[in-house]
Write a structure and sequence with these properties.
Rossmann fold; 16% strand; transcription cis-regulatory region binding; HTH_LacI; LacI/GalR-like_sensor; transcription regulation
């Protein structure tokens, strides 16, 4: 094989000549298409890597009549949370692996036309959100993180067993000596919040415990969350408090210290704030970066025809037990 001058641009033709195959064979080998043997694919890939060949993404997307972009929508409130940032990074990283860009679409953007994207990822879509409704009506391939609590459903869904994980958390609280755990949770416009509420009520029914619930808005402020916690502390005796909204547990922790009671505290959303709190707060790790990557990957499988509409995948989540739930 001939040597390649270092000042020459490395093209698909360069790779083909160096590998001793035709330009079409080299292109098919690198794209994973066509009738090319595995040995030839491996040989061409090795040459491409050695030469530092970078495919022309724009040309490839043009050949496929593709925009080279996917859209990502999240509720406006999530743009202020660390969960959102991690979720977005997961989507962006997975898109980059497929040589795609990501366009962020927020609920404040009302569009007269469909976005110029190949498909959509919807992060925790809220029922009644007109932007989500319009996006799902475009006919573009769509994947949602959690189910959409509306008439339509996305072509693919990545969801987690939130009710089961909450039951595990409540069981941990009971083992730690808590007999009356209370819950602060958002309304049912989010499938995630609705699952937590159902899971809590189901656990209470199974254990013969009277439910203690305060509902807050999905975009609840710190004042609203603290007011809900104060109302619970005044109205009923409780020995554990589970906060569903992101950031809520760190908002109410000072109130529990001021009250002077021995109330265990846990969060349904893990974050740096819960890990660094004093004491560190027990939390459910939703693994948002991995969730974003899973949603993007399912969308690319739908676009490639490797997955069918109606595909659902379970995203595993974890419980991180910390000092806030020990006596």
């Amino acid at each position: 094989m001939r040597g390649v001058q270092t000042d020459e641009p490395v093209t698909i033709l360069t790779v083909a000549k160096e590998a001793g195959v035709s330009k079409t064979t080299a292109s098919d080998a690198l794209r994973g298409s066509g009738r090319v043997s595995e040995a030839t694919r491996a040989a061409v890939a090795q040459v491409a890597e050695r030469l530092g060949y970078v495919p022309n993404g724009s040309a490839r997307h043009l050949r496929r009549a593709s925009t080279g972009t996917i859209g990502l929508h999240v509720p406006e409130v999530l743009t202020r949370s660390s969960y959102y940032m991690s979720f977005v990074f997961g989507v962006v990283e997975q898109a980059a692996r497929h040589d795609y860009d990501v366009t962020l679409i927020t609920s404040g953007q009302r569009r007269p036309r469909p976005p110029r994207v190949d498909g959509l990822v919807l992060g925790d879509p809220l029922g009644g959100d007109p932007v989500v409704e319009s996006l799902m009506a475009t006919g573009l391939p769509t994947v949602s993180c959690e189910r959409f609590p509306g008439d339509r459903q996305a072509d693919g869904v990545v969801w987690s067993e939130h009710a089961e994980m909450l039951a595990r958390l409540l069981g941990h609280l009971r083992s730690a000596g808590a007999a009356r755990p209370a819950l602060i949770v958002a309304g049912d416009e989010s499938d995630w919040a609705a699952s937590l509420h159902r899971g809590y009520l189901g656990w209470c029914a199974d254990q013969g415990v009277v439910p203690l619930v305060r509902r807050v808005s999905f975009d609840a402020t710190g004042d609203e969350i603290r007011a809900a916690a104060r109302d619970l502390l005044r109205s009923e005796p409780l020995d554990a408090l589970v906060c569903a909204p992101a950031g809520a547990a760190t908002e109410v922790a000072p109130l529990l210290r001021e009250a002077g009671g021995d109330v265990l505290l846990a969060s349904c959303v893990d974050s740096a704030a819960t890990r660094l709190a004093d004491p560190p707060i027990t939390a459910i790790d939703l693994r948002p970066r991995e969730a974003g990557a899973s949603c993007a990957e399912l969308l690319f499988e739908l676009l490639a025809g490797a997955a069918r509409a109606g595909t659902e995948r379970v995203h595993p989540i974890e419980l991180a037990v910390r000092a806030s739930t020990s006596r």
